[in-house]
Amino acid sequence: MDHAIRRLFEDLRSIRVALIYPPGEDRELLAAQLRRIGCAAQLYWPFPASVPKADLVFFALAQGQYESALWSASEVSATLIALSEYETPTSLKQLLKSQAHGVLIKPFRSAGILSTLVLARSAKQYQDRQQHKIEKLEETIKSRRLIERATRLLMEREQLDEPAAYAHLRSQATRLRVSVAEVAAMLVEASDTLAKLGLAENNRR
Question: Where does the ANTAR domain start and stop, copy by copy (predicted)?
Answer without folding.
Answer: 127-188
